[in-house]
Specification:
Helices cover about 80% and strands about 0% of the residues. The chain is mostly helical and about 80 residues long. The protein has one domain. The longest helix has about 35 residues. The N and C termini lie far apart (about 40 Å).
Length: about 80
């Protein structure tokens, strides 16, 4: 019995994982820049993450195929 997700969901899984890592990094950076390392840093960071993640997830779903085609044209 395999616990793997079927291959047809690969673009969605990719977008989910890529968006989580991207938003964690960017939201942490911008939250730190805006608030500094204060006691409520984590709550501000998580709030920014929760706000941005759905947007980035959808953006990656929409943009990844276009980027893939562009990279295929640029790379030999």
């Amino acid at each position: 019995m395999s616990l793997k997700i079927p291959r047809r969901f690969k673009p969605i899984v990719f977008a989910a994982i890529m968006s989580v890592f991207t938003v964690l990094l960017v939201s942490a950076t911008l939250t730190f820049r805006h608030f500094g390392l204060q006691p409520d840093f984590v709550s501000h960071w998580l709030s920014a993450f929760i706000t941005a993640w759905p947007l980035v997830f959808v953006a990656i779903l929409l943009v990844a195929p276009l980027v893939t085609k562009l990279v295929d044209k640029i790379v030999d």
